[in-house]
UniProtKB/TrEMBL annotation:
Protein known as: Uncharacterized protein
Organism name: Mesonia oceanica
Upper classification of the organism: Bacteria, Pseudomonadati, Bacteroidota, Flavobacteriia, Flavobacteriales
Amino acid sequence: MEKAIQILIYFHAAFGGIALLAGLLAIIAKKGKTLHRKAGLVFFYSMMLSGITALVIAVLPNHESPFLFAVGIFSLYFVFTGNRALKFKRKDPVLTLDKWIAVIMIATGSLMILLPVLLTKNIDVVLFVFAIVGITFSIKDLRLYKNPKRLRKMWLKLHLGKMLGGYISATTAFVVVNKFFPSIYGWFIPGIIGSFMIAYWQRKINKKKSSISF
């Protein structure tokens, strides 16, 4: 059993490594072109497989980890919703699945905050921050789903923002596992840098839309 779990861990790490490389290629490639789309697909499927294997590992005997399970849900949320955002450019997309994903993320985020308090009487700072980010994005998603017209206009921002959020998750895991930074700094430095990247692309999209409108 333990040998099978170790193989699963290797698969998890391998898919995560592929996601890092493919995601970087998708970021630097010209958006909308063939290289960006193909690298993005490799990133998406690699992240999904890495996230799913993380969920499985986190519930196996002697490897139980609510922390790994919660972060796996967090990563899958960003990547899956980032990919789903591509469908929002269509008129009247079916949003049932998207609403359920947002609800699951809110529930998971709430557990990420409450469980450490109930079990250890302390707030886990890392889980708390991840939870707040996930809950905030999910609430914004649910509000946006009520306005299909605005959702259609926002699809590109949602796609880039969420996929970059997924890449931040992969980078954070890589940084933490390899202990590039002391203490809990490794959990937050990729997110801080990634936030500037997201802001950069959001501004670029806004400028492009402004130039088109004129």
